Amino acid sequence: MASTSDISRGLIIKLDGSLYKVIEFGENKTARAAAKVWAKLKGVDNNRTIEQTWNSGDNIFPVRVERKEYQYLYKDDTGYNFMDNETFEQVAVPETMVDAPQFLKEGQNVSVLFNTETEQPMSVELPDKIVVLVTYSEPGMRGDTATRTLKPATVETGATVMVPLFVNEGEMIRVNTKTGDYVERVK
């Protein structure tokens, strides 16, 4: 058991029978009233995003989570299939549990979060930034560099990313998997 002072980003807590991950949190203090702690929570076992408020010092129920390195293998009817790099054990995860499925490519290492009480996978997190190959992009207009103009580009995973005009087909780029934004060109 923990209190509201233990809340941090990424903490997974049990609330009303469901599991939620803390996305954002803060504290509100007023002159005469007791301090309140608020948190924006994203459902781990459901797709809900909620905001919750507690009185400062209230009890919360964190869930112990274990993070393991897995390798993405393939997608089929059961979902996305991953393999443990140490034991070679495979696990299938539905698409709703994958962080950014549009950026998954075969052989890529990811982190799978397991609930230690039930030994069930809770979510799959990709690295913050990945390097992908641009498979299709329209050529940029020469001289159109006064403003930060972007154009759509299709990457090897099939996702579409908005890139600057100087990025061409066949180049490697770094993409932020959390936002889906272009970061930089990789040489």
UniProtKB/TrEMBL annotation:
<feature type="domain" description="Translation elongation factor P/YeiP central">
    <location>
        <begin position="67"/>
        <end position="122"/>
    </location>
</feature>
<dbReference type="GO" id="GO:0003746">
    <property type="term" value="F:translation elongation factor activity"/>
</dbReference>
<dbReference type="GO" id="GO:0043043">
    <property type="term" value="P:peptide biosynthetic process"/>
</dbReference>
<dbReference type="InterPro" id="IPR013852">
    <property type="entry name" value="Transl_elong_P/YeiP_CS"/>
</dbReference>
<dbReference type="InterPro" id="IPR020599">
    <property type="entry name" value="Transl_elong_fac_P/YeiP"/>
</dbReference>
<dbReference type="Pfam" id="PF08207">
    <property type="entry name" value="EFP_N"/>
</dbReference>
<protein>
    <recommendedName>
        <fullName>Elongation factor P</fullName>
    </recommendedName>
</protein>
<feature type="domain" description="Elongation factor P C-terminal">
    <location>
        <begin position="130"/>
        <end position="185"/>
    </location>
</feature>
<comment type="similarity">
    <text>Belongs to the elongation factor P family.</text>
</comment>
<dbReference type="InterPro" id="IPR008991">
    <property type="entry name" value="Translation_prot_SH3-like_sf"/>
</dbReference>
<comment type="function">
    <text>Involved in peptide bond synthesis. Stimulates efficient translation and peptide-bond synthesis on native or reconstituted 70S ribosomes in vitro. Probably functions indirectly by altering the affinity of the ribosome for aminoacyl-tRNA, thus increasing their reactivity as acceptors for peptidyl transferase.</text>
</comment>
<comment type="pathway">
    <text>Protein biosynthesis; polypeptide chain elongation.</text>
</comment>
<keyword id="KW-0648">Protein biosynthesis</keyword>
<dbReference type="InterPro" id="IPR012340">
    <property type="entry name" value="NA-bd_OB-fold"/>
</dbReference>
<dbReference type="InterPro" id="IPR013185">
    <property type="entry name" value="Transl_elong_KOW-like"/>
</dbReference>
<keyword id="KW-0963">Cytoplasm</keyword>
<dbReference type="InterPro" id="IPR015365">
    <property type="entry name" value="Elong-fact-P_C"/>
</dbReference>
<dbReference type="InterPro" id="IPR014722">
    <property type="entry name" value="Rib_uL2_dom2"/>
</dbReference>
<dbReference type="GO" id="GO:0005829">
    <property type="term" value="C:cytosol"/>
</dbReference>
<dbReference type="InterPro" id="IPR001059">
    <property type="entry name" value="Transl_elong_P/YeiP_cen"/>
</dbReference>
<dbReference type="Pfam" id="PF09285">
    <property type="entry name" value="Elong-fact-P_C"/>
</dbReference>
<dbReference type="InterPro" id="IPR011768">
    <property type="entry name" value="Transl_elongation_fac_P"/>
</dbReference>
<keyword id="KW-0251">Elongation factor</keyword>
<dbReference type="Pfam" id="PF01132">
    <property type="entry name" value="EFP"/>
</dbReference>
